[in-house]
Amino acid sequence: MPGHHRLTFDGAKLALGSSAAQLTDYFEACRRKRNEIDYTGAAVATTTEAEELLLHAKAFLGIVEAWIAKTHSALKL
Q: Which of 37, 52, 53, 61 is the most exposed place for a label (fewest CB within 10 A)?
């Protein structure tokens, strides 16, 4: 389904609220950059950008886990 990654970030922003908005916007920008690289062969991501993305992904995981614990505690691992 075209646009499913963008919709995932939009849905996460709606579900998680303002605590995730900055990260979902960041991930959307990363998604656009990845698309540009994939489809045009333009510049590649740097090691620094990859490390930054990993840090943000870990922070996002914490937000999601806290949201699950708060709103759907039966799903908590």
A: 61
Question: Among all chains, which residue has been given the structure tokens 């646009």?
Answer: 3
d(CA 25, CA 69): 23
From residue 72, how far is each of 7, 13, 15, 65 by CA, in Å? Answer: 22, 17, 12, 10
Q: Which tokens belong to 11?
A: 């849905």
| Mean of pLDDT over the chain | 85
Q: What's the token pair of residue 20?
A: 């995730």
The pTM of this model reads 0.72
For residues 31 and 38, the answer to whether their CB atoms sit within 8 Å is: no
Structure confidence at residue 25 (pLDDT): 92
Does 39 score more than 80 pLDDT? Answer: no
